[in-house]
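C-alpha cells for Glucosamine-6-phosphate deaminase. Go.
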Amino acid sequence: MMEVLILPQDVAAELVARHILTLIQHKPDAVLGLATGSTPLPVYRALERLIAEWEVDTSRVRGFALDEYVGLPEGHPQSYRAVITREVIEPLRLTPSQIRVPNGATETIKDAPAEYEAEIAASGGVDLQLLGLGGNGHIGFNEPGSSLGSSTRVKTLTAQTRHDNARFFPSEDEVPRHCITQGVSTILKARHLVLLAFGESKAQAVAAAVEGPISASNPASALQLHPHTTVLVDEAAARHLSNAEYYASSYRNKPDWQAL
C-alpha cells in the first residue's frame, strides 16, 4: 500500500523539502527528479529557504526534469528548461549543467528519447522523484492510455492538457501539441516517488491512483507497483479516499523522521 499523508499544502511542502535536504546531507551527489507546474512550487520555495538556513552545499546535486514541450524556440519563457531555471536552478544555488531537461528541438527529436534514458542511467538513477498529478491521472505527460511499461518518448498532448496549460501562454493555440516525456516505466525506476496533489479538483484522480485498479486509463495508478511511494494530499484532495482515516492516523503515529 502507498504511504498516504493528509496534510495542509504548506506543511506537506515543508516536510518534503526537509526530507530532500536530509537526503542531500547524507548523499551530496543525490539525483533528483524534478516536476514543473504549480503543485511543486511550495516545495521549491521551502527548499530555497532551508538551503540558506541549514547552509547545505548543493554543488554536487544533479537533477532530471520529467518532460519538455516539442518545438518551442530556445529561450522561450514557457519551455520547461526556462521554468526549471527560474524555479529551481537559480533559487537552489545550482548551475545549469547540474540539471538535465529533455531536448525538445524538432531537428533532433528522433534521437532525444534514447539519449535522455542513457543520461539518467549514466547518473546512477534518480534517488527521489517529485510528481504532480493531472486531473485525468497523468504523471509527467503520460496521458490516459499510456503504456505502463513506457520509456522516454514523444507524446501528443490531449485537448484537456493543452487547455489546462493555456494559462501559461497568450492563447490556447500557442500551446504545443507534442512533448517529450519520461515514460511510466522510467519514472518507476526512481528509488523514491513523492506524489503531490492538492485541492478538490484532484480528488477523483487521487482516489483512482491510490485505491483504484492499476490501469493505463489512470497512469498514476502504476505508482501502486512501486516499493516506496509517498503521496501527500490535503483534505480536499483526499475527500474520495475510502481509507482516509487510516492514512491520517498512520501519519500521526509516526515520528517526523519516519514520515516519508
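The chain has one domain: 3-136+144-258.
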